[in-house]
């Protein structure tokens, strides 16, 4: 996926675990298929997963995520992975790595949600509680706003999408997001990467876990609206918006900025991962298909196409 990406194998995991955590040395090691773009995941036995970065960190890595998980763990209405151990680099692997609790569940598929109304309530409840957590000493989230620094990169990358999408519509939506009033409130806790690949649902379709906290921190909560176009389809998206308005005071400006975050994530991801990450390509394509049905004229709270 990336230039200079490190190839991580089950043999590496076996060596690292055996040397540093011999109590787990005999557990089976199986690579976990993942949409992830920075970490390799290997299941260790039945109840653990090993997370190993395969590109050099840029300040967002295992130590950062570990600190975040320790702050939010046990304080939210749904499980997040518990950090069981932190591993050191060795002569064959150069980065800090972690062993996490394995959380059961499946990735939600927007077109096949078993109980979308319950999932909406679960996700809004999660966001509400997350926003209530103390923010003192918490770093800025990876997506924390404003959108302006992304203005030109997104416009330029849109040109790589060719005739596949309604670029005129996407450009108008992007300009509208950039023109939306900025967040004036105090920064609040945000996960900032609420894609389907970072959510788990149980056999009833209820929210069973939230994964990948490496991008989390404090910022403008509009970034959480990635979920609107990535997790939910049309009617469910409108219900999600209505619940956010009711319980978290979502306003029109936040919806417009959130739509901008969804556009930027999908536009920047699709050309980059098109040939190397089928999962990311699928998610970005789905989001852009949903976004190109939107209209900048739909600015009445509670309405969305």
Automatic annotation (TrEMBL):
CDD domains: APH_ChoK_like_1. Transmembrane segments: none annotated. Pfam families: APH (PF01636). Residues 32-261 form the Aminoglycoside phosphotransferase domain. It comes from the Bacteria. This is Aminoglycoside phosphotransferase family protein. The lineage of its organism: Bacteria, Bacillati, Actinomycetota, Actinomycetes, Micrococcales.
